[in-house]
Amino acid sequence: MAKKKTEGGVWETVKTIFWALLIAGVFRTLFFQPFWIPSGSMKDTLLIGDFLFVNKMAYGYSKYSCPFSACPIPGRILERAPTRGDVVVFRHPTKDVDFIKRLIGMPGDTIQVTDGLLYINGKPVQEKPDGDFSEVMAPQGPQQLMPRCSNAPVGEGDTCIKHRYIETLPNGVSHEILKITDGGYANNTPVFTVPEGEYFFMGDNRDNSEDSRFSQSVGGVGYVPLANLVGRADRIMFSSAGRSLFYFWTWRSDRFFKAIN
Q1: Do the Cβ atoms of 93 and 216 come closer than 8 Å?
Q2: What membrane topology does the annotation report for this chain (predicted)?
Q3: Of the residues 56, 101, 162, 179, which is catalytic?
Q4: Which terminal residue of the chain has fewer beta carbons within 10 Å of its beta carbon, N or C?
């Protein structure tokens, strides 16, 4: 009798775990996907160690909506067009990894950056200075990445500064961007013409972002097909500045449940 009770208890545990995993898988596939910010390419909108849920209902579903890209979906179903200025998680076109950037260019747009100023369809995008973004020059997050600074060289423990601007896109969406310099290829690009069915993304930390300004052949993102969009980032749920979320003294409580603009 004891053996039967033990076997019954084990079976109930197995069933509980199975259903819990199934429910979690359905929730992750259809509704929200967790995402940790691993790099500083979206500062200061998103910081290393921010944790958010990606809204997977925003643009419909593709094969990348499922874990391990396992959904047998050709193209996209329940499709909804993204909006310029959205902060989007997408699957890199050639690498099996998710990226998060801001949607800048729509299909058919021309995009160019000249002396650090963004041009969309030949017109300069409005931007205005908004002070400086300051942080401590120190290793950040699990990867212990060091920030880049406009006031370099900066010693560890000193203040690292980047210049902050408010950029307003043609559809009226305003958001913060950071700049370190106006030189280099990232700030003086050729004219990009976004193909139909694809999108152009840039990081808000303009001088520290591998994005659509760089081709896939040199490690960049290039144009991103609609099918590769995973979802929209709407709100930060939790944030930790330390190497581990268990380092509670590094939690950024002021960023908990913060809306993403």
Answers
A1: yes
A2: Single-pass type II membrane protein
A3: 101
A4: N
